[in-house]
């Protein structure tokens, strides 16, 4: 049977990007279509208050990236926190990317805040700290597209560090076989990253913007991370 994945979409794209890219839910569906483990996806935009019907079960819940701060007090973020804690306490598997990575760390005992390192943009490389069996195919180094000014500055006490860099020490982590999170964006493609950079050029400043654009010449391994995520979920289901 295909894995059933609930995508909790935590953003609405900027108007100038919606026609081409639609939303993060669609980006993840396109990404996961390229990996070998069969899965079905249901997307719910939690900013608009949409959640799965009560009683509907999924093999995992994926929390997307967002322009919002994970430590913000917006009503929809408060509602999402309550929902995710319920899912965690129920034993459900949780996947987080960028905002989702930060929010889950915060909820489960870690710390997330505005990073003193400033904005991270473009393509970024990480060292692999641990390589569990579900991280197949194995990599010596992980490269992902990024766009963030917040970071997880302290992992939850029971978390295992998966990937790190000098710029982003807590770039990926797992908690047992239940939680798996990445700061980078496996669902991004180079054109979308360039569009975000262009929109934020004046805000970022020429140095950060220029380095970000130049880094887009490098390939990224989002498809590999997608496979890792599905193997992480499938391994847990197969063992149940």
TrEMBL record:
Keywords from the UniProt entry: Transferase
Listed GO MF terms: transferase activity
InterPro entries attached to this UniProt entry: ChyE-like, Class_I_gatase-like, GATASE
Organism superkingdom: Bacteria
Signal peptide positions on this chain: none
Keyword set includes Transferase: yes
Descriptive protein name: Amidotransferase
């Amino acid at each position: 049977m295909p894995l059933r994945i609930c995508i909790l979409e935590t953003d609405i794209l900027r108007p100038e990007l919606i026609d081409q890219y639609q939303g993060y839910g669609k980006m993840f569906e396109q990404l996961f279509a390229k990996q070998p483990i069969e899965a079905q996806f249901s997307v719910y935009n939690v900013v608009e208050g949409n959640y799965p019907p009560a009683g509907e079960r999924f093999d995992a819940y994926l929390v997307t990236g967002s322009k919002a701060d994970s430590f913000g007090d917006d009503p929809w973020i408060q509602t999402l926190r309550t929902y995710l804690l319920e899912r965690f306490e129920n034993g459900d598997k949780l996947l987080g990317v960028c905002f989702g990575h930060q929010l889950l760390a915060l909820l489960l005992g870690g710390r997330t805040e505005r990073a003193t390192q400033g904005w991270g943009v473009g393509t970024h490389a990480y060292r692999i700290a641990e390589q569990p069996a579900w991280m197949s195919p194995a990599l010596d180094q992980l490269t992902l597209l990024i766009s963030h000014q917040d970071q997880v500055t302290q992992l939850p006490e029971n978390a295992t560090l998966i990937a790190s860099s000098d710029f982003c020490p807590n770039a990926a982590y797992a908690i047992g076989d239940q939680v798996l999170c990445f700061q980078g964006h496996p669902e991004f493609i180079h054109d979308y990253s360039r569009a975000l950079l262009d929109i934020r050029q004046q805000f970022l400043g020429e140095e950060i913007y220029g380095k970000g654009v130049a880094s887009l010449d490098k390939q990224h391994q989002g498809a590999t991370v997608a496979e890792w995520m599905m193997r992480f979920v499938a391994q847990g289901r197969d063992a149940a």
